[in-house]
Amino acid sequence: MASIYKAYDIRGIYGKDLTEETTYAIGRAFVTFTDCKKVVVARDIRPHSEPLFTALAKGLTEQGANVIDIGYGSTPMSYFANGTLGADASIMITASHNPAEWNGFKLCRAQAVPISGATGIKEIERIVNEGSFAPKAATPGTISKADVQEAYGRHVAQFAQLPKPVHLAIDFANGMGIWEVKALQGVLTWDGLYEDPDGRFPNHEANPLNHATLADLQAKVRAGKYAFGVAYDGDADRAGFVDERGEIVPMDLVTALIAQDVLSKRKGVIFYDLRSSWVVKEAIEAAGGTPMMSRVGHAFIKQQMRENDALFAGELSGHYYFKDNFYAESSALAILSLANIVSKSDRPLSELIAPLRKYFASGEINSKVTRDPKAILDELRTTYADGHLFELDGVSVEYADWWFNVRCSNTEPLVRLNLEARNAELMAEKRDEILALIRK
């Protein structure tokens, strides 16, 4: 059985891998590990999030922690609550974009600093497996309720710069975007798809990275008059976008546009993940920012942002991180940034994106491999030793007219390729060349 203790969160199938008994133990282990006194807990709309909250809160309070229950909310709202309610930890009950039978926990220390596999999840797993909890508290902690929806909305709204109204189409996928978008009420207007909360996700998977899930949004945008369309994932910490014509906007190009909005207010460091187009760095520099490359994964990006006091970071997976949300995701702020750009321009989003579509990308291509992935990376280092090689995450090599990154999955025998070139022919040639090496 695969472990529920992952690189970035705890996640499993409810009733099979993840039970109330295990959740109670995780609550006890969390306090044992962090020694937290005040922990924010939020949850998504899945039917089992409620019983999991009850079990988790029992474990947390028996160890002496006070629980601030903010009820249903998006993952960005849980980060905001952690940072603004004086908590020293937070737990979001969600399995993000996973199917309805899954659930899990995203864990943070104070100020929404993530706890990853390397910084605590493996230790929590050990405590649960060994039963090596700290003694139960003589006086159990309490459970109190708090509502951060209004405060989060006020916080987001202060970044609006909208000389003319912006009207959107939004696919909520029946998930937590229904809560996240409330931060934009009175700032933007929208027409919604699948806006009834339903943690069974009856209409489609809540995952904008799967382009098949964007079909209904694309059809709605093409049938109406919208500045652009938005698709949330299950816990609303990611968003995908389509332009006013219903064409999918690559998420790294969204990073470039949001960076322009952020940098129009103040200058500073902007991070982009190493799979992003060359044009992202160029756009950040053109807007007066300092571009810095990050490795893939929210825990790494948030740490690098803090170390460099970065204003914003964007990831190819649709995570958009803001210093103004405790260096954590806020899809409401991402949507607002795009709306600011469109509102201030006399051109539609498709025309604003057009100059950024100057290179040719392979997209992320996963290869299931039978030989040791490390041997593949070694061969790439040797074969492409004449390029500019760096190893921020996997192996990256840059040439004058093309570049590639190859990374290994942490959990599966998969090797991931991202490649970009200055023309389509070179991209196809080099993509096939490297895939042949990976798959031989």
Mean model confidence by pLDDT: 97
According to CATH, what is the topology of the largest domain?
A: Alpha-D-Glucose-1,6-Bisphosphate, Chain A, domain 3
Q: Give the strand content.
A: 15-25%
Strand order of the largest sheet: 1-5-4-2-3-6
Runs in which pLDDT lies below 50 for 5 or more consecutive residues are none
Largest sheet: 6 strands, mixed
According to DSSP, the number of beta strands is 22
Spatial gap, N to C terminus: 30 Å
Q: Tally the helices: what do you get?
A: 14
The H-level CATH homologous superfamily of the largest domain, spelled out, is Alpha-D-Glucose-1,6-Bisphosphate, subunit A, domain 3
CATH class of the largest domain: Alpha Beta
Shape: globular
**Share of helical residues:** 25-40%
CATH 2nd-level architecture of the largest domain: 3-Layer(aba) Sandwich
Please tell me how large the radius of gyration is: 22 Å
Give the domain tally.
Answer: 3
Report the structural category: alpha/beta
